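Throughout this chapter, every protein is written as a compact record of paired, labelled lines. An example of such a record is reproduced below:
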Amino acid sequence: MNRKTVALVAHDHKKAELLAWVNAHIDAMRKCDLVATGTTGGLIADDTGLAITRYKSGPLGGDQQIGALIAEGKLDALIFFWDPLNPAPHDPDVKALLRLCSVWNVPVACSSATADLIITSPLFFAEDYLPFKPEY
């Protein structure tokens, strides 16, 4: 099976929604190597028992650590439930993270509907699917 590395990130008002999404897709999550920002990763690990590599909290550099994974070609998808109604002090980091997904053609979901489409796509775990990776 083709294991994928998936980052799970959520702003405070979206953590419960992301946790519910992970539980709804627990079988798919077990097939992935999971990474997350600090608090979000702790909540998911505690609730699900899934193994998760935890980085710093988003505002303390965790968003940038996940961005580094993207730039290094080590991330297959970003599930980032950000809160569009509550501005965060680290909004520039959030924008940079989303920008890197576009630069490196990494699928990113900012809502449960989009996350559903990514994780249930037959291409996501397909052995013979290789997404285009730009060369700069």
